[in-house]
Design brief:
With 212 residues, this protein is an alpha+beta fold. The chain is built from four helices and nine strands; from the N terminus they run βαβαββαββββαβ.
């Protein structure tokens, strides 16, 4: 059977930053079906498009660098895929580009870049960030589903730059996982974040490992 693997780069902005990863998957499944593309479906009693996202995005985070991949059973040019899919996507999801990749070549993220608008940061934040970057180990105990798990946040931060208002982070991604921008800021401050001062976080880039 002929198979074509398509990789789409898209943006997730505005109010759609508040939909979950599961809902985003369902959104793309429905949009792909409505687009009338020759989709490769899963087997079983409830066939569904085989849609994959290489790195989930946290709820409430915007992105200008998301990736979704799926397979087709007939050749369709990436330009035509984009045209047909764009008509079915809601406001807040915009396609940046698309490409056809070798069958079996799945996107593997090795780093992600974030921009964090901090509003009114603590006056000593720049000095704390410098101390954080100079350290080899800065441990943090996670909350939520991973409550109780401790990790070395510093080991995931490849670079950090603060201009007085916006923090830019370059974070590594590996089979061991990664860290969230809010976890980095919590580790820099050495205390939990103040919920009264929400952060505006945007993923700005994903780095992929080269094809093997």
């Amino acid at each position: 059977m002929f198979r074509q693997r398509v990789r789409i780069f898209f943006r997730k902005e505005g109010l759609l930053r508040f939909i979950s990863h599961h809902d985003l998957m369902r959104l793309f499944e429905r949009a792909l079906r409505r687009a009338g593309l020759p989709l490769k479906l899963s087997e079983g009693f409830n066939p569904r498009p085989q849609v994959s996202f290489p790195l989930a995005l946290a709820l409430g985070v915007e992105s200008r660098a998301e990736i979704v991949e799926f397979e087709l059973t007939e050749w369709v040019s990436p330009r035509r895929v984009r045209e047909k899919l764009e008509r079915q996507l809601p406001e807040g999801i915009g396609i940046s580009s698309g490409q056809s990749v070798a069958y079996g070549e799945k996107a593997e993220v090795v780093a992600s870049e974030f921009s964090v608008e901090m509003g009114t940061p603590p006056p000593d934040f720049e000095a704390r960030l410098a101390a954080f970057m100079a350290a080899a180990t800065v441990m943090l105990e996670r909350s939520g589903k991973s409550a109780g798990k401790r990790l070395n946040v510093r080991s995931f931060v490849r670079a950090a730059h603060f201009d007085g208002k916006t923090l830019r982070l370059d974070l590594s991604v590996s089979p061991a996982g990664s860290v969230r921008p809010d976890e980095v800021i919590q580790a820099v401050l050495g205390r939990p974040l103040d919920d009264a001062a929400p952060l505006r976080i945007t993923r700005t880039r994903l780095d992929l490992s080269p094809p093997s």
